[in-house]
Sequence to fold (413 residues):
Amino acid sequence: MDTHSLYELGTRVELTGALALWLVIALRLPTARRSRQQKMLLLSAIGLAGSITVYLDPVTAALTHTFRFAGSCGLFMNGWGVLSSALILDFVLAAMSRRRPWLVYGPMVLTIAALIALNYTIAPDAGCVTSQAVAWYSPFWWLLIAAHLIGTIPCAVLCVRYGRRAGDDRPVRTGLLLLAAGFISSATFWCVILAFLLARPAWLGALFPLNVGVTAWLMTAGVGLPLVLTVHRAARDMSALWRLHPLWREVTEAVPYVTLDKPVPRLRAILGGPRTIRLRLYRQVIEIRDALLVLHDYVSSEAMEAARHHIGAQHLPGEQIEPAVTACWLCTALDARQAAATPRPNQLAPGGPAHDGLRSEADFLLAVLRARALPAVRAFAVPPAPAGPAPALPAVPEPRTPQSSPPARVRNP
Fold:
């Protein structure tokens, strides 16, 4: 691949990455308002997205014809880059609870003023990073590179540090490491510019758009990961809500007073935002659990022990045993409830998930629903509990064996 093809590829990656980053930022705005740290992160992402956007060829051409400072080989774009570095550094200090706005934005203003002064006095047109002669010791570019590295490197270190501390929380760790990779890519871009100033190889200059595009896509992945997780969780909640509906309908018809509101159609229940769907799933799981507690008293302890012994003899996988036992006694309880049996307190605790939480509860109930279709569960049958004390059977006289009459006693005189 020649340098022209590499430059064209980088331009396309840069354009699509900038569009994707702005789209993710727009989608994250409503949720970021609730968290101060998320708001600071989004502001730093906005600054970085802006610094990428102003380097796009169509945007650069529009700025050149609109603003005076844009015409001096990218002075407007470089000033915006310093602003983005300040926003990034402000995010780092805020995450460390050491935020000092005057310590960040004061030097930012001084740096931009110094760049403007250098561009029009000591080093005119020093904003150009092209093949034209720009001294490697140009104070304009050394100051600009330092400003960017001071903003991005600490942020990359912070994201790596907290990503390693995330432990088993894979989404948080992955998101922080993606952000760290984005900031490292941004720092690499300015190191590449420094190398270009020192050596000036043509192929290195062709890497500029590709490096910026990779930075944009990494930041898009890091900032957009919470959106992906939200969509994934909403899809799982919708699936669980849809699949649990038959079990919910069956147990609530047997115990109707556990429902809080009027039942809604199955299709309508899965329509709504992520928070609405999760709330409906939570309510559905609670109502199923309440109904199971009521039905639990329609099964005797002996029947539950028989169900456990029956399932234990089937050699099922360990994760299917407790749901299968619950499915066995649930069938018995529903039959007893339909037969109007009298409930009696059951001393044995009903089965449940190993961990608390909505997801584990929903997974356990889905496992119960699947277990009801197992042949082992269908083969289990326990007669329902009687409706009351068993009535006394009428006494039946025992048959007497025919025998001779006893001899008459002789009464003594």
